[in-house]
Write a structure and sequence with these properties.
With about 550 residues, this protein is α+β, with helices and mostly antiparallel strands. The chain has 16 helices and six strands. It has a four-stranded antiparallel sheet. Strands 5-6 form a two-stranded parallel sheet. Helix 1 runs antiparallel to helix 2, helix 5 runs antiparallel to helix 11 and helix 9 runs antiparallel to helix 10. The protein is globular and about 85 Å long. It starts with a helix and ends with a helix.
């Protein structure tokens, strides 16, 4: 009964963590702007807190006599530091305008300022959150043989709670309660978790005063070393890198065919988290098999790489060449279509991705000094990889390589790691050598992503042809020629101007300027094709300023 209650508390911990994260990202988007770079800075601050917390508390918990009491204090720390959010946010609103006046023209420096401001708000609660998995592992894992199976169960339970939290924060809590009350409800729930954990600690001390193990030793044979600690850390780092890179890349992929709504992306996040939880459950089951661990790990890495590499082709097939999903359906049917599509394209490879980190914790059993130390070390390295992966995808991958090539590069990374890090041992030789080489050859030959469309054009129905296309961190922008007219499209479907409607777009400038008695300075929010702003220059005005929210749109215009 006590164990079930503790697991329920850890489920609730995952629930509140994602409620916080979703609400933080929404509110900080209003302050910092909803650009890809601003969102990446905020996410990097959050994950940095998780990484540091995982490492620090993992190092310290081995020397603590009552881990569940430490867990309760961590949850209390999350609740108290989360309450500071409102105070700091008011301060940031007062500081933001002067800082922008001073540094707004220096883009890289301004992003760094946003990162520092995000750290001030998010680091401390994330630091306490990061310690919960190592501390809970220290409490539940009393025998070396139980490390992998217990931590994979904890990871799955916590991630299921996170998926439910993302669903509630994305769909239900803000419309029902509003932002502030939803946030305070999450803080209150975190406080209840802390109080309940303290109660569990007192019960455990009363029932188990001699500090005997909670669980009997596992009947499985001792797992002999098969990967070095350095190789385990390297794979853990790359697992985080690949997983968060793909979250960014797959979100961009679906942006090409879905409505640009909060609900759409909340549902994609829920699907992604659920697939990771199922993957942890898969790893838990694989640990019971009496199979050489290298065979299982090699199979997981190769399967993940192939499924990820196939996702662009499956997406292109499912959407019939980037056709809009659910355009003729009502809201309920549309959301059902989004869930089924994301489950097919992201969910299946996501299961393979989600199984790798828990399985690496299983392979860490021979080197375990204490459960909390081992879990904290591996998870911290994994989280650092996640930070770098999300930044790479948003700032480098999409800018330099484009969407499809970035996904292929991430998939190929797993195959290369399998070749470099998995030693050939018996039956694992095929999985560690032949299968990765075959996969790499497949990706550069038959599965060539350069053949996939980046923008949907309809040459027969609408006499369209692709004139030029740009891919950036914030959007995919294309110039499409229809008959003799050119039009500018963002993320495949949002048309932001074109020469076919030049008279109407010019009138948007002419009419207000002709009505105004003495126009001197004109401001346009959104440049688009530049036709409307250009029309303003034909009037007797001193200055025309156009502010384009998506920098990727400026390249085709210029």
């Amino acid at each position: 009964m006590q164990r079930a209650l503790i697991l329920g508390l850890f489920f609730t911990s995952g629930f509140t963590a994602l409620v916080y994260e979703v609400l933080w990202m929404k509110d900080l988007g209003l302050l910092f702007g909803n650009t890809a770079h601003a969102a990446a800075a905020a996410l990097a601050a959050f994950f940095l807190g998780l990484a540091v917390g995982s490492y620090v508390w993992g190092q310290r918990v081995a020397h603590m006599q009552r881990p569940i009491r430490v867990y309760a204090l961590l949850e209390a720390g999350v609740a108290l530091s989360a309450l500071l959010y409102f105070l700091l946010l008011d301060l940031y609103y007062a500081l933001y305008a002067p800082l922008f006046q001073l540094l707004g023209d220096h883009y890289a420096l301004w992003i760094a300022v946003k990162l520092v401001l995000s750290l001030g708000i998010l680091f401390l609660p994330a630091f306490f959150m990061g310690g919960t998995l190592p501390v809970m592992s220290q409490y539940l894992v009393q025998h070396r043989e139980r490390l992998g199976r217990t931590t994979s169960m904890l990871y799955a339970i916590n991630t299921c709670g996170a998926a439910l939290g993302a669903l509630m924060a994305g769909f239900y809590l803000p419309p029902l309660l509003g932002f502030s009350k939803s946030y305070l409800a999450a803080v209150g729930l975190t406080g209840l978790v802390a109080i309940a954990a303290l109660g569990c600690d007192r019960i455990a001390i009363a029932k188990n005063p001699s500090d005997q193990p909670l669980d009997p030793p596992d009947t499985q044979p001792y797992l002999s070393p098969c990967l070095s600690p350095r190789a385990i850390r390297g794979l853990a780092f790359c697992s985080g890198f690949v997983t968060l890179s793909l979250e960014v890349l797959w979100s961009r992929m679906f942006a090409q065919v879905l409505q640009n709504s909060v609900y759409t992306y909340a549902l994609i996040l829920v699907t992604f988290l659920l697939s990771l939880a199922v993957g942890a459950g898969l790893a838990h089951g694989l640990m019971r098999l009496r199979v050489q661990p290298l065979n299982l790990l090699g199979g997981l890495l190769v399967a993940a790489a192939l499924l990820v590499g196939l996702s662009p082709f499956g997406f292109n097939w499912l959407t019939q060449g980037l056709s809009y999903l659910g355009s003729q359906e009502n809201w309920g049917a549309y959301m059902g279509r989004v869930f089924m599509s994301s489950a097919l394209i992201m969910g299946i490879p996501g299961v393979a991705l989600g199984s790798i980190l828990p399985f690496l914790l299983h392979l860490s059993q021979p080197y375990m000094t204490s459960a909390g130390h081992t879990v904290g070390d591996v998870v911290a390295v994994n989280t650092v990889g996640a930070i770098i992966g999300s930044l790479w995808a948003g700032f480098i991958g999409l800018e330099w390589f484009g969407l499809w090539s970035s996904i292929r590069l991430v998939a190929m990374l797993y195959l290369i790691l399998t070749l470099l890090l998995l030693p050939p041992m018996g039956a694992s030789t095929w999985l560690s050598r032949t299968a990765p080489v075959c996969g790499l050859l497949l990706f550069i030959s038959f599965l060539d992503v350069s053949r996939l469309p980046r923008v949907r054009v309809q040459p027969l129905q609408r006499k369209e042809s692709l004139y030029q296309v740009w891919e950036g961190s914030s959007a995919t922008v294309a110039v499409v020629k229809r008959y003799k007219a050119l039009k500018l499209k963002v993320n495949n479907y949002y048309t932001v101007g074109g020469s076919g409607a030049i008279k109407f777009e010019e009138q948007e400038a002419h009419i207000p300027l002709m009505i105004h008695p003495r126009p001197r300075s004109v401001f346009f929010l959104g440049l688009g094709s530049g036709i409307t702003a250009g029309a303003a220059l034909t009037h007797d005005v001193e200055r025309v300023v156009a502010c384009e929210q998506d920098s990727a749109c400026i390249a085709p215009v210029c």
